[in-house]
Amino acid sequence: MHTLTRRLLPLSIMLSCTAAAQSVEEIIVTGVIDTHTVRTDDTMVAPADTAQLLRQMPGANINKNGELTGIAQYRGMYGDRMNVSINGAKISSGGPNAMDAPLHYAPVALLESLTINRGITPVSAGQETIGGNVNAETYSGDFGLGDDFRFSGRTYVGGQTVNDGLVASGFFSLSNRNHIFRSFLMKEKADDAEFARGSITPSEFDRERYDLGYSYQQGDHEFSIDYARNETGYAGNAALPMDIAAVDSDLFNSRYEWQGADLTVTAKLAYNEVEHLMNNFDLRRPPQDNDMGPGTMRYRQAFTTGDSLDASLSAERFVDNGSWLFGVDAHLADHNAVISNPNQPMFYVDNFKDVERNIVGGFIERDMALLDRMNLRAGLRYNRVSMDAGEVSANMNPMDMPSGMPFMMNMLAANLAGAFNDQELRQTDDNVDAFARLSIDTDSDISWYIGAAHKSRSPSYQERYLWAPMESTGGLADGNTYIGDPDLKPETALEFEFGFDLETARYSLYPRAFYKDVSDYIQGTPSQNELANNFAQLMANMGMGRPQPLQFSNVDATLYGWDVEAGYSLSERIELRAVASMVRGERDDIDDNLYRIAPDNLILAADYLGNDWMASLESVNYRRQGRVSATNQETETSGYSIINLSGRFNPTQDLELGIGINNLLDQQHRDHLAGFNRAFNPDIGMRERLPGLGRNFYGRMMWYF
Ligand SMILES: [Cu+2]
After folding, report:
1. What is the domain partition of the chain in residue ranges?
2. Closest to 395 measured CA to CA, from 382, 379, 381, 411
3. How far is the CA of 397 from the centre of ligand 1 (A)?
C-alpha cells in the first residue's frame, strides 16, 4: 500500500496495520518476518539524516561522522560490508571517507520508508551482502484510477532547536491510471549542534535537492525513470580530518517490470556521478603556525569524483510449491581523488588515481514449501570482482627546497609511489555466496526459523589502493592513518542464525540469535612498511596525524549476539514496544575486540493512540562499551539513558502536525559510534569522543494536497 493512499485511513488504524500488513506479506514468502521497515509517515524523526532511523531497528545502528554522514551498521558490520541501495539501486560513495555515505542520497524529507533485512540476507538482495542489506524507498507518487489527470503532492516542513535546523520541501505529482509525472524540491540548513556543555564545531550543514521522475503502467508493464540532483554545500565532519565543502551528485535510476501470469521480469539500470570537495580550513579552525612552519603549509583540500553504474536483469517464475528467481547484475565504479593546498599551487598528492572496482554477478534462488508447514528459501551467487588502479605521483616539495622537511617528505612520497606503481595492481576475485533459510509453522502462535549462509566481500578500493599513510578509510574515523595492500584476499563469513516469531492478538516477539565466523576479515594492523612508517612519523612531527600507521590486513574474526523486537497491546489505545540489540566482535588471531561495535542497547516505548492524535514516550538505553579495539586505539564509553517524547495530531485528513522533544533531560552522553573530535573546539578536547546531541525540540508539518 502506498503511503499517499494510506493517509486516508484514520491514524490509529493505520498504525496498528503497519506491523500486521508487513507480517502478512512476509508470511507468504518465508513463514517468518525477514525484514524490518520504518515508515517516515508513522515515525517522528528530528535529524536530517535517514541513517539515524537505523537506531530504531533490531541489530542496526549508525556510525555517525557528521550530521549528513551516517554509515549503516548491522550486527557489528558497517561501511562497505553493507549493501545500501536507494529505490533498489546500489549507491557508491563519491568520497574516499564516505562523507556522502549512501543514505546521504535519501534525505528524510523525501523518504517513504527504510527497510533492513533481518539476519541472513538472500543473495538476490545485492551483490555483496556480507554485513546485510538496507534499502531506502523515496516518494514516487501513485497512479490514479481513471483517465483524468490529477494533481497531488505533499509539503514537508520541519525545524529543530538543537542546531536551528530547518527543512522545507515539496513533492508534486500529476497522475492518471497510466502516467505519473513527479518532481521534488528540498532545501535544508542547520547551524552547529549543541550538547549539554557546548556545541560541536563544525556540525552545521546546508543541502539542496531536486528530483524529476516519470512512471508509466499499461497492462502487465510498468516503467519508471528518475533523475535526482543533490547539492550539499558546507557540512561539518568533526570526526574526520576535513569537512564537506561540496557534494554535487547526479543520480539516474530506471526500472522496467513485466508481470506475466506466472513470470515476472525486472530490469534495472542506474547511474550516479559525484563531484566532491572537502577541506580543513573553511568550517573548522585552519592549521595554526607551529615550530615546523607556518600553518598555511598544512592547508589541505581534496577534490574527489566517483561514478557508478548499477544494472540488473532478473526473472521470477512462480511454480506450484513456490518460485524460482534468476538474475544477473553488474556494478561498475570509478574513483579519483587528489589532495592539494590552496596556498601552494604546485603541491599535490594523488590520493586515488583511476581506480576501478567492477563486479559482475549472477544468482539463482529457490523459494519452496516443503511438506505442509515448512518453507525453504535457498540461493547461490557467483561474483567476479575486478579491480585496478592507475599510477600515482605526488609533489610535496612545491618550493623545490634542496633539503629540510618538504624535501624529505617528497622523497619518501616518491619512493612510496614508486613501490606502489611497481606492484601488480590489477586484481580479480571469484567469490561464491550461498544461503538457506528454513521456517516451520506450528499449531501454536510460533513459527521457528533457522538459517545459514556463506558470504563474501572483496576488499574496498581504499583497502587495496591507499598507497601513502592517510586517513582515507571509508569513514573509519579512528584517527589512525592507514596504508592499503593490493594483494588482500576477499573476506568470507560463515553465518548461522536462529529464532522464532511469536504472534498473538495481544503481543508479538521476534528474537534472533546469530553467529558469524569471518575468515580473512580486513582490519588495520601495525604497519611493517618502513617507508610508510617514516612518512607517517614526519607527518606527525609536522602536527598531521598519528605516527604509527596501520595497514589493512587479512585477519580472522567472530561476531555473535542476538536482537529482538517485541510489542504488547496494553489496551485498545496503549501499545508497548521494545527493541534490544547485543553484538560482540572479536579478533580470533589475537586477543582484541573489533573496532566501533555498537554497545548493548534497549529501546522501550509506549504509544498512546487517540482518535486523531497519538503520543509516544520513549526511553533509549545504551550500556557501557568496555569491549574496545586496542589495535585501533579505541576508548571506552559509559552507558546512558535518554528520554524522548513525541506527539502527532491530524486536524484534518490532509494535515499532520508533529512535535517532539529528544533528550528531554538534556543528558550529557557519548555515543560510542560517533567518531573522535578532530577539529579545534573549546568545548571538546582534541581526539575526545564526540558528544551526543543535547535537548532538542522539533516539529514537522506535512500537508497533503
Ligand atoms: Cu570527503
Report:
1. 3-137, 138-704
2. 411
3. 24
CA of 433 to the centre of ligand 1 (A): 32
Q: Are 143 and 182 in contact (CB under 8 A)?
A: no
* Other Cβ atoms within 10 Å of 381 Cβ, number: 26
Bond into 691 cis (ω within 30): no
pLDDT tens for 405-437 read: 889 999 999 999 999 999 999 999 999 999 999
CATH topology of domain 3-137: Ferric Hydroxamate Uptake Protein; Chain A, domain 1 (2.170.130)
The Å distance, Cα 96 to ligand 1 centre, comes to 6
The answer to whether the 3-137 and 138-704 domains have the same CATH topology is no
Residue 279 CA, ligand 1 centroid: distance in Å: 8
Mean pLDDT of 5-23: 34
Lowest mean pLDDT segment, chosen from 43-47, 115-119, 257-261, 659-663:
43-47
**How many angstroms separate the alpha carbon of residue 69 from the centre of ligand 1?**
10
pLDDT of residue 31: 67
99: CA distance to ligand 1 center in Å?
A: 5
The phi, psi pair for 139, rounded to 5°, reads -60, 135
The DSSP bridge pattern shows strands 243-259 and 263-279 to be antiparallel
Please tell me the distance between residue 496's alpha carbon and the centre of ligand 1 in angstroms.
36
Q: Calculate how far, in angstroms, residue 97's C-alpha sits from the geometric centre of ligand 1.
A: 6
Q: How far is ligand 1, taken at its centre, from the CA of residue 335, in Å?
A: 12
Q: CATH number of 138-704: 2.160.10.10, 1.10.10.10, 2.40.170.20, 3.30.479.10?
A: 2.40.170.20
pLDDT at 15 over 50: no
CB of 59 closer than 8 Å to CB of 580: no
When mean pLDDT is compared across 8-12, 88-92, 571-575, 683-687, the lowest value belongs to 8-12
Ligand 1 center to 286 CA (angstroms): 16
> 457-495, pLDDT tens digit by residue?
999 999 999 999 999 999 999 999 999 999 999 999 999
Give mean pLDDT, residues 500-520: 96
Phi then psi for residue 326, to 5 deg, are: -125, 150
Decide if pLDDT at 186 tops 90: yes
Distance (angstroms) between ligand 1 centre and the Cα of 304 equals 7
pTM of the model: 0.94
From the CA of 98, how far away is ligand 1's center (Å)?
A: 7
In the block, residue with C-alpha cell 516505548: 605
